[in-house]
Amino acid sequence: MAEMTESIARQFPLDRIPAIREHPENFRLEIEIPFMRFAGANQKLPIELGRPSDNPDPLRSMVILSEDIQARDGRMYGLAMLRVSYDRYTSKLVSIDRIWSGLENPPENVRENQDLYTTAARKFDDEEVREMFRKEPRTGGVAPFAVSLLPYTERPPFDIRFPELGAVSWVTGGRGFPWAELDEDLPAQFSSMHLLCLNKRVFFNERTPVDRCLALLWFVSMVPGALEHMVQEADSAASTIQVRNCFNQKEELKQRRFRWSGEDRCWSKTVYTEKELQEELEAVRDIMMDPDDRNVRIIESAPWERYRKR
């Protein structure tokens, strides 16, 4: 008990309360993301997040995942996943059905911290990973889609390690996701989950893979329209508009939520309906004063092809 009290005192020094009262403008209060309470190894599943509607066949599922990748060779050595059910009629979360994380041939410095994972095995449990994406009767026999903060980085090593899951659709919860459009308190340019947390005055342990998944899930639950947007992306073919030779027009493109792609050396925006595509093309033509679209390229991609290694 004394050790716990000492630990709490270090994290929340009560001796600073007089200073807080004197200059409250110099301090800010942050709370741990509530979903972190689901991270315990002895957590009973499923974890109810809401109730499904009375519509027939309402449930679908998604898998939120987070990887640890070796910088030297791009190999995935750590993986965490949550399988989550949602109501496709109300776009509300229903339950966390499975939680798993594991290691495979981790670097020496990671082996010392393997307690951050739910299993200490030195090889991924292939059956457990496949089970996450299995079609189930309760979700209408429809396979889950994958959600990643860093799909451009995380899908290639995942596909190499699990080629049998290559038909899974991937969506982004990070760069390219319209957090700021859905919630004005969130930053217009996504750089990290840490930045989202700063804006909402919450925190979590970023070193723990399952916690990273739970943090993203919490934001999906809290931001109106977030889940609906992810489902739409998972079900729809995408059109990515790329604009080049537009240095003088970049501010106008940024106002329309175009983002700089260092990999493709262009400003780009991805849309999911024909109506959005035509609206953006018309706006780009006006901005570029280029009715012939000489500096515009459109790349079409099916949901299961998105974020693959090029």
Description:
The chain is α/β, with parallel strands linked by helices and 310 residues long. Helices cover 31% and strands 22% of the residues. Strand 10 (259-261) and strand 11 form a beta hairpin. The protein is globular and about 65 Å long.
Rg (C-alpha, Å)? 22 Å
Our measurement of the CA-to-CA distance between the termini, rounded to an integer number of angstroms, reads: 55 Å
Share of residues in helices: 25-40%
Form type: globular
DSSP summary: helix tally: 11
Low-confidence stretches: none
Biggest sheet statistics: 6 strands, mixed
What class would the helix/strand composition place it in? alpha/beta
Average pLDDT, rounded to a whole number, is 87
Instruction: Order the strands across the largest sheet as they lie in space.
Output: 2-5-4-3-6-7
Portion in beta strands: 15-25%
Order of helices and strands: HHEEEEEHHEHEHHEHHEHEEHE
Number of strands: 12
What is the quaternary state of this protein?
A: single chain
Give a quick precis of the structure.
With 310 residues, the chain is of the alpha/beta class. It has eleven helices and twelve strands.
Write the layout of secondary structure elements.
Layout: H1 2-11, H2 17-22, E1 31-32, E2 47-48, E3 59-69, E4 76-87, E5 92-103, H3 108-111, H4 126-132, E6 145-148, H5 151-161, E7 170-172, H6 179-182, H7 193-200, E8 202-203, H8 209-222, H9 226-235, E9 238-243, H10 250-255, E10 259-261, E11 266-271, H11 274-288, E12 296-301
Parallel strand pairs: 1-8, 3-6, 6-7
Antiparallel strand pairs: 2-5, 3-4, 4-5, 9-11, 9-12, 10-11
